[in-house]
Amino acid sequence: MLFPISDALAAGEAASAGGMESFLVQVVPLIVIFVVFWFFLIRPQQKRQKEHAKMCDALAKGDEVMTMGGISGRIESVDEQSMALQVASVDGKPVVIRMQRSAVQMVLPKGSVKF
Questions:
Q1: Which InterPro entries does this one have (predicted)?
Q2: 52 and 78 assigned to the same domain
Q3: pTM passes above 0.85
Q4: CB-based contacts of 112, cutoff 8 Å, min separation 6
């Protein structure tokens, strides 16, 4: 008790040494959580988006497709952003709708769509 200032300095040094350790204990779990989210959520979503964009770029006349709305049909013509999709035939005349290429969910095997 003769030197209370030296006791206070010693306590301050111990607290500052533990400060870096407590900082790491707080930051490391956040980094781990971010890495887990990236690996299991963000990365697979980016991969699906790339595959969908590649599929949409490869669409051609005559492909049979299903849209995200559940409409299936045969592609009659394709532009840069849109396509004409034959969805039915009424009295021998084709029923054609125009939609965006990105609305295609999947390409169906040939012969899947019957009119």
A1: Preprotein_translocase_YajC
A2: no
A3: no
A4: 64, 72
Q: Please check whether residue 79 lies inside any domain of the structure.
A: yes
Contact between 84 and 65 (Cβ < 8 Å): no
Backbone phi, then psi, for 9, in 5-degree steps?
Answer: -65, -40
Question: The sheet that has 93-100: what strands, in order across it?
Answer: 93-100, 82-90, 72-78, 64-67, 104-108
Three-class secondary structure of residue 90 per DSSP:
strand
Which mean pLDDT values do the consecutive 10-residue runs of the chain (115 residues) have? 56 60 89 94 95 95 96 96 96 96 95 89
Q: What's 81's DSSP letter?
A: S
What are the DSSP calls for 37-65, one per residue?
Answer: HIIIIIHHHHHHHHHHHHHHHT--TT-EE
